[in-house]
């Protein structure tokens, strides 16, 4: 269990599959050890893995690790978001695992104009010939599959969209929405500026967390969609601040 604790301390978040490979042991053993460590208040178990009780502000696990965490909740968030999409709209899709679930749901939609900087979403949506797809070219953020930088930013400056669906890494009541990556910040800010409506998609684990860089404050976002797992005290604070929330 010391090896698991060391992995959690180093990375902040780990998956069961990742631990099984690194520690060369069975999945059942990892699950049993994670349960025992949680009882000792050494970590918090989540779907498919575990997270440190106190996470760092500058580390974000790779996409392939994060995508399975809170998967059911992310699917519910995507299902709610898809109901807000209307025919012939122009949408911007940010990067991230929850927005990727929305991209999956958009596969059943027609007559949309979608632009994204996320390679996973782009590859998926390219299979729907009834969607006009634009991919913002740029520098690849390895292991996260987002495109950012000079070329990405110049492309976004030339367009205007009805809605942007934005991913965030942390939400703090005093600061607003934050991100781990400096590379992605300007992309997100420009997407916000280019859109009539800004919708944040984030699971409940992002609240009352701090990440490295600020994206925007609450008054720049029109709607936040999150899961019913959100802490009631946090939800009450958000409601007191007149933040428009959709709980699913």
What's the quick description here?
The chain has 10 helices and 15 strands. The chain is an alpha/beta fold and about 250 residues long.
CATH architecture of the largest domain: 3-Layer(aba) Sandwich
Strand order of the largest sheet: 6-5-4-9-12-14-15
How does the major sheet shape up? 7 strands, parallel
- CATH C-level category of the largest domain: Alpha Beta
Overall geometric form: globular
**What is the number of helices?**
10
Which bin fits the share of residues in helices?
A: 25-40%
E-strand count: 15
Would you write up a description of this structure?
With 248 residues, this protein is α/β, with parallel strands linked by helices. The chain has two domains: 2-55, Arc Repressor Mutant, subunit A (Orthogonal Bundle), CATH 1.10.10; 71-247, Rossmann fold (3-Layer(aba) Sandwich). It contains ten helices and 15 strands. The strands form four sheets. The protein has a seven-stranded parallel β-sheet, sandwiched between helices. Helix 5 (71-82) crosses helix 6 and helix 6 (97-106) packs parallel to helix 7. The protein is globular, with a radius of gyration of 18 Å. 39% of the residues are buried.
SSE topology:
Elements: H1 2-11, E1 13-15, H2 16-23, H3 27-39, E2 44-46, E3 49-51, H4 63-66, H5 71-82, E4 90-93, H6 97-106, E5 112-116, H7 119-125, E6 131-135, E7 139-141, E8 146-148, H8 150-156, E9 161-167, E10 170-172, E11 176-179, H9 182-193, E12 195-201, E13 213-216, E14 223-226, H10 232-240, E15 245-247
Parallel strand pairs: 4-5, 4-9, 5-6, 9-12, 12-14, 14-15
Antiparallel strand pairs: 1-3, 2-3, 7-8, 10-11, 11-13
Helix pairs in contact: 5-6, 6-7
């Amino acid at each position: 269990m010391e090896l698991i604790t060391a992995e959690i301390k180093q990375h902040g978040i780990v998956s069961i599959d990742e631990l099984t490979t690194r520690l060369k042991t069975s999945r059942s053993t990892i699950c049993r050890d994670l349960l025992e460590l949680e009882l000792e208040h050494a970590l918090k178990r989540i779907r498919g893995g575990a997270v440190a009780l106190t996470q760092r502000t500058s580390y974000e696990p790779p996409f392939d690790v994060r995508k399975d965490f809170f998967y059911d909740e992310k699917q519910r968030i995507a299902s709610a978001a898809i109901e807000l999409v209307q025919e012939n709209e122009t949408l911007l899709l940010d990067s991230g695992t929850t927005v990727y679930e929305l991209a999956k749901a958009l596969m059943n939609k027609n007559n949309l104009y979608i632009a994204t900087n996320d390679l996973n979403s782009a590859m998926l949506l390219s299979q729907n010939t009834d969607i006009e797809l634009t991919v913002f070219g740029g520098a690849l953020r390895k292991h996260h599959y987002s495109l950012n930088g000079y070329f990405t930013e110049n492309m976004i400056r030339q367009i205007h969209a009805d809605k942007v669906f934005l991913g965030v890494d942390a939400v703090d009541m005093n600061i607003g929405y934050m991100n781990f990556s400096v590379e992605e910040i300007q992309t997100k800010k420009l997407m916000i500026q280019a859109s009539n409506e800004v919708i944040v998609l984030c699971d409940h684990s992002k609240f009352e967390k701090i990440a490295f860089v600020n994206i925007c404050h609450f008054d720049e976002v029109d709607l936040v969609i999150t899961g019913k797992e959100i802490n009631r005290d946090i939800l009450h604070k958000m409601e007191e601040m007149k933040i428009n929330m959709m709980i699913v």
